[in-house]
Amino acid sequence: MGLDMYHFKLTNKQEASDGDYYTVESLTSFPGILEPNRHLITDNTVPDTHFRILIFANEQDLRLYSRYGKTGTSEQLLVNNPENIATDIRNIEQQYQLDAADCLSFDRELLYKPTNEKFKHLQVTERSYTTSYKTYQVIFHTTAGYQRKGVKLLFYEDFINNAMLFKKEEVAEVLPYLDGNDPEAYRRCVENFQQHFIDNFEEGKSIFYISW
Question: How far apart are CA 141 and CA 20, in angstroms?
Fold first, then answer.
């Protein structure tokens, strides 16, 4: 079972080097953390919907995906024919009014599942175009502490997945649950948690987040 524990601190956008944030809507149930940080609320506009062009190595791969894959209405499929691929892409961009300047191109794997067989993989190039944006009210945060695993099994019984804690005394209650494969690993685990989750915890600004 995977476990990630984070210590986030709410801050302004300029100081949030990783660009992560909470939406104000997600914090409305926690007035103790939202109210003191209303001055940090800002509008954040992000991509909302996309259109994609999937470029396959050959006709056989395209047919396999068309038959067994999860095709969508906001996509077009092409074969990577060097003689006309650029023209085919431009024609699709014009047909669907896609902005070539707002496109990300990357290689990826697609899954498809033939009848009564296991999932299989296809290598494709995807061109993803943003077709609409949405604006949220958010508060940005930095990561002040991180720890992966390193807890006793009882931790999963006494704590809740995707929980958020806002009091230092509540975070300190995690200490007895820390564990390690050997005494040195345990020492490092406790030292990291004490330094990056408890000693630097600021109530009204800090959020302890658990995920597994």
Answer: 6
The structural domains of the chain, with segments of one domain joined by +, span 4-45+140-211, 47-134
**For 12-30, what is each residue's pLDDT tens digit?**
999 997 899 999 999 999 9
pLDDT 10s digits, 140-151: 999 999 999 899
